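Support request, please re-run this one:
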Amino acid sequence: MVNKINIKNALNKLYTGICNIYEYENILDETSKTIKQHIILKYENIPCRVSYYNNSSNILSSKEDTFNNIITQKVKIFLDNDIFIKPGSIIDVNQNGNITKYKNSGKSVIYSNHQEIMLDIFDNIG
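Re-run finished. Output below.
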């Protein structure tokens, strides 16, 4: 029987990226006495893996009798399930020499040995 520790160790070997996770936090501005949202670094240098897949569909144009091929890219991040990531977080990922910033992280899907989160591309950093 394979135990949970062996599975986590095997999954950790698949994590080829490192991510930083930022969250929005409400902070009271003492001067104006209003609550403002600030972005704070919640987790740093977390091992992860980003996976991409394309979804292609043909859509009939309403103006012409032609099909337009629409391609959308889905992005999913895999990481350890021991950390809590709020939906809506911003995640910077350094994987394969590319740094990409993602926004609007979805709700984590938690499994016994890892978690998966759908992401939207925010910006390519480098």
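The helical segments are 4-14. The chain has one domain: 4-124.
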